[in-house]
Fold this sequence. Notes:
There is one protein chain. The chain is an alpha/beta fold. The protein contains 11 helices and 22 strands. Helix 1 runs parallel beside helix 9.
Amino acid sequence: MAHIVIIGAGIGGMPAAYETRELLGKEHRVTVVSAAESFQFTPSNPWVAVGWRERKAVTIPIAPHLAKKNIGFIGKAVTAIDAETNRLTLDGGEALDYDYLVITTGPKLSFDEVPGAGPHGGHTHSVCTVQHAENFWADYQEFLKDPGPIVIGAMPGASCFGPAYEFTFIVDADLRKRKLRHKVPITFVTSEPYIGHMGLGGVGDSKSMLESELRGHDVKWVTNAKTTRVEAGKIFVSELDDLGQTRREHEIGFKLSMMLPAFKGVDPVAAVPNLCNPRGFVLIDEFQRSKAYKNIFSAGVCVAIPPVEVTPVPTGAPKTGYMIESMVSAIAHNIADELAGKPATAKGTWNAICLADMGDTGAAFVALPQIPPRNVNWFKKGKWVHVAKVAYEKYFLAKMKSGNSEPIYEKYILKTLGIVRLLDK
Length: 425
């Protein structure tokens, strides 16, 4: 009998638990360990931040849904990983042994890399967690009584740019509905070398389309932006040229700001010898397996993926939802195969599908695979994307409640579009 332990219960961890449980015999145990008691659908956080959603609409309790599938749950933080003895130490000192470990922790939000940034004692907000989104909503309600400039964007080293664009257009749409947009100058500040880069070197016509959208919504922007510090009501930015030299300095005033941070690996994972790169992301092979420990696998934002290209201001490659699901499928199949005495052969396609809401319309891109060169590379805009994003929110939460990580109709609908999770299965 093997014990498979999954650290983290987010968009990677919950599907990993369900899919692993489905593929393994009843004699094997599956346990999820997470400090969070609720699963939160992170892509909905921009809506929470402007009051379009409440926490209860985008979260579900973890334990009861896992229990229905005979999956154990421990609601404690992991404080240490001893990869040599296959043992976790949990908050409070409790030990937990494993045969296989699956790391799906998500990232550590590295606000401290920019002095004055972040919602914890700093001057900028975030939509990386539902609590951060609620914090923005609380300040936004006060802001609406006496509006002023807003700055939205992404810090140096950020890798998840889609939500920054999405949030810009959602705030714009909300202010227009309230007839307040004319009182709120919006500036988009991003570490990308150009608008629409997305950490991916662009997708289709993303550069021209997003530039056009920002112009059409009266949003000014600064690219190649190295945010150096934030003070109350001011963000300081060095705008670099293509050679990485300072082109000009900006001091941008704001009354409210949302700046996505750079990510790092979480502390107990980063501390494991030889497991991670210098920023704490897990080094994996083509089978999602640790390069140092054969019984450790990892998926999601916490894995190490090199940047698509070198940029004047550091940017990372994003890990999108479907890409993460493809990683998870590979892990579940590889563990099941090894327990059956077969070699691990499953490889995730790392295909990327992204739906970004823009209020009453939206933008979507498909990159197959996410890392270029690609077989499919397109970027489209339309009202259908807004509808699709709302539907996807409901659909994914329903999947997490039902415990079915890939319903048969999803598999075959996406297959007709040439989108599959695994390369060899």
